[in-house]
Amino acid sequence: MTLLALSRVAVGWPGQESVLSDVTFSLARGARVGVVGPNGSGKTSLFHTIAGILAPQDGTVCLSGQLLRKGQFLPEVALVFQQADDQLFCPTLGEDVAFGARNLGLSEQEVALRVANALHACGLTGLEGRPVYQLSGGEKRRACIAGALVMQPSLLLLDEPSAALDLRSRRRLINLLAGMDQAMLIASHDLELVLELCARVIVLDEGRICADGPTRDVLGDAALMAAHGQEVPHSLTPHDTARHKHRQQTRR
Ligand SMILES: Nc1ncnc2c1ncn2[C@@H]1O[C@H](COP(=O)(O)OP(=O)(O)O)[C@@H](O)[C@H]1O
Ligand SMILES: [Mg+2]
């Protein structure tokens, strides 16, 4: 069943020419789709449009068959910002995660239940009282996701979720996202992450969709990737198995 449908969408920031043109794609409920492309290709602008922050200059965005209107607040769509510090603004983690749920006008009892569930899902239980500036990079990223989950969205827009995370935090994030059943659009330069999490990928360049298809086919297409400033990820690069044999590490 279609959750999100964009048809011939054009987008521009105030006082600028279009940064996205003729963007058409749809997303099924529960599907995870990667969005890759060079810096400035329009990934963040696309997410701001779907989140209702930026109005399309042309075309339509429909969510569950309903036409999105400018400035409309949609709890069904949750944007997780690229910079965690742009998103977290309350004094403590608990208050920050509660913010979205309180905004929905829920009872304090329901807010508390949703906050506890979101913190638990993101492995942050027990840190409720911690000032947000005292969280690590990985905790901040998961705090942003928890703040999105409290609204029980059906679509998560994750903007560069693994940026600046160390390997352990990145792995924890991948496991967290892999276990969630919400539909997701994941904008990332981390092509291995996209490969692990998304069966489908969209390539954006200069504000247009250049490819949309199965992740392994698209990211494995060396000519396509090179044409859009990308490289085939290591795990899709053909290896000469005889020469690429990794030696077993021995303990000293
Ligand atoms: N807040 C903003 N105000 C004005 N222009 C912006 C803003 N954010 C992005 N842009 C412009 O939109 C274009 C696409 O950028 P962006 O959507 O951030 O791409 P990406 O996320 O793929 O790096 C760029 O030319 C950028 O300068
Ligand atoms: Mg961006």
UniProtKB/TrEMBL annotation:
Where are the residues of the annotated region Disordered? 229-252
Instruction: Provide ranges: composition bias, Basic residues.
Output: 242-252
What keywords appear on the UniProt entry?
ATP-binding, Nucleotide-binding, Transport
Q: Which Pfam families match?
A: ABC_tran
Query: Which SMART domains does this UniProt record tie to the protein?
Result: AAA
Against SUPFAM superfamilies, the record matches this protein to:
P-loop containing nucleoside triphosphate hydrolases
InterPro entries reported in the protein's UniProt record: AAA+_ATPase, ABC_transporter-like_ATP-bd, ABC_transporter-like_CS, ABC_transpr_CbiO/EcfA_su, ECF_ABC_transporter_ATP-bd, P-loop_NTPase
Q: Where is the ABC transporter domain?
A: 1-231
**Which GO molecular function terms does the record list?**
ATP binding; ATP hydrolysis activity; ATPase-coupled transmembrane transporter activity
Query: GO CC terms for this protein?
Result: ATP-binding cassette (ABC) transporter complex
- Supply the PANTHER family for this chain: ENERGY-COUPLING FACTOR TRANSPORTER ATP-BINDING PROTEIN ECFA1, HEAVY METAL TRANSPORTER
State the similarity comment.
Belongs to the ABC transporter superfamily.
Q: What is this protein called?
A: ABC transporter ATP-binding protein
Organism (species): Roseinatronobacter bogoriensis subsp. barguzinensis
